[in-house]
Amino acid sequence: MPERIAGAVYGVVLGILFGAPLGWFLALRGPWLVLFMIVAGWVMGTALKRMTTVIVNGTANAFVRLIWPSGNSTPYTPTWSAEQAKVARGDIEGALVGYGSAMRLHPTDPDLRFRVAEVLYRSTTPEQSEKYFKEARTLAGDDRGRELYATQRLIDLYLGPLGDNVRALVELRRVVERFPGTSEAAAARKVLMEMKAIVRLD
The domain 81-201: what is its CATH number? Predict the structure, then answer.
């Protein structure tokens, strides 16, 4: 049904349903009542049409944004998929070259440092990951989650591949001091006590 005809039909229907009782209530009779019904129907039909258009357009736009988000609502986040693919293939050197170029382009991105640190941690030179975990922690600034993650990974590095208990103790104390009242601080305190007991036994 063409839009204008549909609007006219809706106007007549609304005029009869709402205009007639309202006009009668206002003591309108005869031609005045008919005129009032026509005007009321036109006003209500126009309002309904506009309201329906707004609702439909709004719903459609919301759906479009959901399935096809714009750059304004969803900022692009690099995934570094090429470097990840190289790591999966065992091309560690190629991945590190790619990450190195990315770090030069994004010198303040802590996540890139985390990626490099994790690659190095699992490589034949895990000691090189220490530098990047620390850089990531510094670049994270006030991001407590990233700070805690970097510190925990340093503890893993010192207690694991490097076997450096002294530096591990420093990082464990950092967790206790920087994150009091957390389960991570409680776990770090427990490890500290166990390590001190081993030292006393030795």
Answer: 1.25.40.10
